Amino acid sequence: MMIKNKKLSAAWLLFAVWLYGMWAVCELLIVPSLKQSVQNEYLFTFLRDGVLKNLIWTLPAFLLIKHFRSSLLLDDKQLFSFGKEQAKYLLTGVFLAVFVLIGSVVRHHGFAVSESFHPSRLMIVLFVGLSEEIVFRGFFLNATLKHTDADWKKWLAFGGNALMFLAIHFPIWISEGVFAANFRSMGFVIVIVLSVLFSVCTTRSRSLWTAVILHSFYDLMVIVFA
Question: Which pLDDT score, from 0 to 100, does residue 167 have?
Answer without folding.
Answer: 98
